TrEMBL record:
Segment forming the signal sequence: none
Top-level lineage group: Bacteria
High-level lineage: Bacteria, Pseudomonadati, Pseudomonadota, Alphaproteobacteria, Hyphomicrobiales
InterPro entries: AB_hydrolase_fold, PLipase/COase/thioEstase
Annotated ranges, domain Phospholipase/carboxylesterase/thioesterase: 18-198
Keywords attached to this entry: Hydrolase
UniProt cross-references to Gene3D superfamilies, sorted A to Z: alpha/beta hydrolase (3.40.50.1820)
UniProt protein name: Hydrolase
Organism of derivation: Bradyrhizobium guangdongense
A molecular-function term among this protein's GO annotations: hydrolase activity
Length: 206
């Protein structure tokens, strides 16, 4: 398997979608397991650790400054992560997962949607930004995306998250973009909205 340190928890409910958990800067493969269990009890959970280190803190791709990405690295790392997910699907016998990413993890999830559309079945993007200034033309028809932004987020400008929502919608995704009265950190509202959204996806798939 492509070399990603990761955690995997098998499904307890075969009807729940597998989740790909992607942590933020400085997190690791353990960070979002609790969130995954809360928003979709019974789902298989696949949680890799980002392979880039920034002052010792794991990330999924390099950045040049706060909010300024090394886009060549974004592309390379997204493709590597896509290979890992494809291999994990075979190894663990899971379907294409729904990505649940926070901050840096949400940004690599957005890049994956644009660069490898078939690798994810949908995504919950928590405090995400546009990952590529010149993204490829992606075909995201039939995919559902929940984008949750913070009204007082000091890292993600409102115009940037709105542009990401528009970009994904133009590619055919069903995007539900909500701006919460929050900053960059997650709130209980994020958990509740994500849980309800995944429940709605399950209901439509049933």
């Amino acid at each position: 398997m492509t070399d990603f340190i990761h955690r995997f928890e098998p499904a307890r409910d075969a009807g729940s979608p597998p989740l790909l958990l992607l942590h933020g800067t400085g997190g690791d493969e353990n960070d979002l397991l609790g969130l995954g269990r809360m928003i979709s009890p019974g789902s298989a959970l696949l949680s890799p650790r980002g392979r880039v280190l920034e002052h010792g803190m794991p990330r999924f791709f390099r950045r040049l400054a706060e909010g300024v990405f090394d886009e060549d690295d974004v592309r390379q790392r997204a493709l590597e992560l896509g290979e890992f997910i494809a291999e994990a699907q075979k190894r663990y016998g899971i379907a294409a997962p729904v990505a649940v990413g926070f901050s840096n993890g949400a940004n690599i999830a957005a890049a994956l949607l644009l660069l490898k559309p078939d690798i994810l079945s949908g995504a919950v993007l928590l405090r995400a930004m546009v990952p590529l200034s010149d993204p490829p033309k992606a075909e995201l028809g039939g995919k559902h995306v929940l984008l949750l932004s913070g009204q007082a987020d000091p890292i993600v400008p409102a115009s940037n998250s709105a542009r990401l929502a528009a970009l994904l919608s133009e590619a055919g995704a069903h995007v539900d973009h909500k701006v919460l009265p929050a900053g960059h950190q997650l709130s209980q509202a994020d958990v509740t909205l994500a849980r309800n959204w995944i429940g709605g996806i399950n209901a439509k798939a049933a």
